[in-house]
Design goal:
Blueprint (H helix, E strand, L loop, with lengths): L15 E10 L2 H8 L15 E9 L11 E4 L14 E5 L3 E3 L6 H5 L2 H14 L7 E4 L5 H12 L3 E6 L5 H5 L8 E4 L5 H8 L7 E4 L7 H7 L3 E4 L2 E5 L5 E5 L18
Parallel strand pairs: 6-7, 6-9, 7-8, 9-10
Antiparallel strand pairs: 1-2, 1-4, 2-3, 3-5, 11-12
Helix pairs in contact: 3-4
Length: 265
């Protein structure tokens, strides 16, 4: 059960700041935590809130590069119940802060980093996607899928969006920044045939899944469409063009770091 309570917000400790919260993100991590479906089981009553943006109100010892009044957002790199970001004010770790320019509002800033961080970790930190390569993006209309398409295009790669039905095709085509090179409706088209046609029979270099369930999983595994990565499992192609599945289960504090170029512009 969720309820609003008046609590005293502590002063920031070493390496922390106190933020006036202006916008929050609501994502799957928050939903699974409060529903009891998360592997993490914090003792109750517990705080909640994984993503937020706002202004710095106070700075703790050892914090450099930030000042009171700075507009900032948090890149989630901590337990979902560690900080009470669903609130008017909250202490937050300075190591997770990024500055927010005036051209980005707080709602946009708060809802950016879980999606883009997940996509960056899969495509770049693990998948090593490079310019000129083709990447398949199942669940392309999800927040992580849209982020993956944008990152792939920024890297000079060629994203092919996969979505279950044509109902989402027009929606995907109407988003200029997230417009893929091609879109395949997996429940209505021959996925294997379409991917071969779109890649001149070569297949994709990488498959990025941001969700456990995928309509492309069987076709992917049986036809060896390149390397595959996501937060749960991946596949490495063998010389006979089949794929061997390997499991990849990141820990709650997955130790990837955002490069300087992945920031608000």
């Amino acid at each position: 059960m969720l309820r609003i309570e008046e609590i005293e917000v502590e002063e920031p400790g070493e390496g922390e700041v106190r933020m006036r919260i202006r916008g929050i993100g609501i994502n799957r991590t928050d939903i699974t935590l409060r529903s009891g479906r998360s592997p993490a089981k914090p003792p109750l009553p517990a705080k909640i809130g994984f993503e937020a943006a706002g202004e710095i109100e106070a700075i703790g010892a050892g914090v450099k590069g930030f000042a009171v009044g700075d507009r900032v957002a948090l890149v989630p790199a901590y337990a979902a119940s560690r900080y009470g970001l669903y609130g008017e004010s909250s202490v937050a770790p300075a190591r997770s802060l990024v500055k927010v320019p005036d051209t980005v509002n707080f709602e946009q800033a708060a809802a950016t980093w879980a999606a883009f961080g997940t996509a960056w970790a899969g495509l770049v930190a693990v998948g090593r996607l490079a310019a000129g390569q083709t990447v398949l993006v199942p669940a392309a209309s999800s927040s992580v899928g849209l982020a993956a398409i944008q990152i792939a295009k920024r890297l000079g790669a060629r994203p092919i969006a996969l979505t279950r039905t044509s109902a989402k095709v027009d929606e995907l085509r109407g988003l200029p920044k997230s417009r893929a090179a091609a879109i395949v409706a997996t429940e209505e088209q021959d996925v294997v045939g379409e991917i071969k046609r779109l890649t001149d029979g070569k297949g994709a270099d990488l498959v990025f899944e941001s969700r456990r369930r995928s309509d492309f999983r069987e076709a992917r595994g049986s036809h060896g469409f390149g390397r595959a990565v996501d937060s749960l499992w991946g596949a490495e192609p063998r010389s006979d063009n089949s794929a061997t599945v390997r499991h990849f289960r990141p820990q709650p504090h997955y130790p990837w770091r955002l490069p300087a170029r992945l920031c608000f512009r």
